[in-house]
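Structure tokens please, single chain.
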Amino acid sequence: LRIERDLTQEQLAELIGDKCNSAYISNIESGSRLPSFIRFIQFAQAFKITANELLENTGYLECKIMKYSDI
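Here you go.
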């Protein structure tokens, strides 16, 4: 979504504010870190979409559903 919106990691971090930086964005994008609930809401606000839309856009829910359907 960040790339679709033509934003750098630095620009996204600035939009989020609240001590967010490009290293944090990189860790989220690489999957090495998950955002807190508050930070997740800040991501949605930065993209001007709802939290639900952000979940749908990331494919996170689909990954979890597929993972648990294999059990």
